[in-house]
Amino acid sequence: MIRVLVVTDSATAGARLAARLAGDDRLEVAGHALSPGDLERLVGIGSADVVVAAVNPDDERAAGALLALAAESTAPPLVAVVDDEAGPWTSEALQAGVRAVLPLDVSAAELCAAVAAAAAGFVVTRPEDAAAGGRAGRPRQALPALGPLLTPRELEVLGLLAEGLGNKGIAARLAISERTVKFHVGAIFEKLGVTSRTEAVTAGLRRGLILL
Predict the structure, then answer these.
(1) Sequence ranges of the chain with CATH classification 3.40.50.2300
(2) What's the pLDDT score for residue 86?
(3) Top CATH class, 2-132
(4) For residues 148 and 170, which has the higher predicted lDDT (pLDDT)?
């Protein structure tokens, strides 16, 4: 079980993030702290395995505290949830050691997959952020080879899996039959070496196949 500490500046925001995390049986929300500006004092609270923090990059105190915490060798992996227009701060955060920077409207499946990947030692990036690299002294864990590439249609299906759609929803979105969707899902599982939708989304995020 991965214990997650949620840090936000409001109970409402915390409840939204906790609700998105609650649907994954690998995760347990260990607590919710209402003090993003005091992140440096939260290391080890509740023996958290991952910290998910909603931070406004324009709040210099809160954003700076997050980066300072990421630099601590004893800190749990950090996943930041920020405005999608965070821009340069995203690169700064990834360089500092934050494991993932996700937009405020991140889906439950994407958030859970990013948390699981962070707990496993991976850095989750969108393609445009990938050049940021990891912080010196905290190298990224090498990713296994992908093997056969996914087809464009399989990439579409994988992206819709990340949105949490079932076979029926994917079929409707792509105007194909549910049987065809099942075929594509099976091919995705085989190529990524996974056995569940959550594992497929996690693998897709780690390999940059899913755009957040």
Answers:
(1) 2-132
(2) 60
(3) alpha beta
(4) 170
